[in-house]
Q: What sequence folds into this?
């Protein structure tokens, strides 16, 4: 089995001695990677449907992994309320589903790792308002898509990320990696393509135009760090 860059990146963020909920476990590849490379961890593989859990079980059996995990049918944390989970992984699902899950997260969770399949700004807003701090951000490019990998830990104070940090990522923007630049260049090209097909008088024209101008600022020095 070839492990994807996204799964490898997430697995590298898992600490030994963790109790993990892999929400939306799908084929269970992340569980395999975590149990292969971490000591004294336990993973709850969670999915809302039975079929992905069946696939996960088959993949775990292929690697002769017999312990260190439990597969549970659950909509988010609904059926794992009684588990003392400290790390939640939410990957491969959209930001609005991630937000829905986060609104009902177990109180015991002190470490959140997410990789939205679309945007991340609304999740960062939630992080900002719920006493978590973003401590790691990276981008991986795989199969024609850019994925933001974000890790947050529980903080004793509410974080105050500004509009730019929410949109681009407080670590990603200030690091400005080549993949970060490529991601937003790609987004600008997509938006310009959409704009070229919209009449000037269309109500969405100005909205998209303003978004392009907002993103283009990352190629200037206009955004200053608030750290």
A:
């Amino acid at each position: 089995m070839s492990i994807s860059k996204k799964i490898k990146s997430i697995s590298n963020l898992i600490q030994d001695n963790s109790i993990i909920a892999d929400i939306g476990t799908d084929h269970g590849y992340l569980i395999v990677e975590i149990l292969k490379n971490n000591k004294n961890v336990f993973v709850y593989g969670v999915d809302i449907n039975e079929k992905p859990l069946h696939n996960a079980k088959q993949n775990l059996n292929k690697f002769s992994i017999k312990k260190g995990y439990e597969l549970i049918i659950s909509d988010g944390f609904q059926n794992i309320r009684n588990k003392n989970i400290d790390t939640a992984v939410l990957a491969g699902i959209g930001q609005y589903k991630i937000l829905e899950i986060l609104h009902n997260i177990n109180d015991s969770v002190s470490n959140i790792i997410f990789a939205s399949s679309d945007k991340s700004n609304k999740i960062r807003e939630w992080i900002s308002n719920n006493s978590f701090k973003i401590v790691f951000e990276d981008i991986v490019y795989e199969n024609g898509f850019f994925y933001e990998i974000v890790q947050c830990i529980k903080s004793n104070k509410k974080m105050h990320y500004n509009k730019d940090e929410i949109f681009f990522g407080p670590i990603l923007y200030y690091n400005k990696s080549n993949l970060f630049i490529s991601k937003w260049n790609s987004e600008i090209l997509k938006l310009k393509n959409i704009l070229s097909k919209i009449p000037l008088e269309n109500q969405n024209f100005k909205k998209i135009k303003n978004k392009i101008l907002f993103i283009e600022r990352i190629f200037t020095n206009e955004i200053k760090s608030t750290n």
Summary: The chain has two domains: 5-159, 178-219. Confidence is low (pLDDT under 50) at residues 222-227.
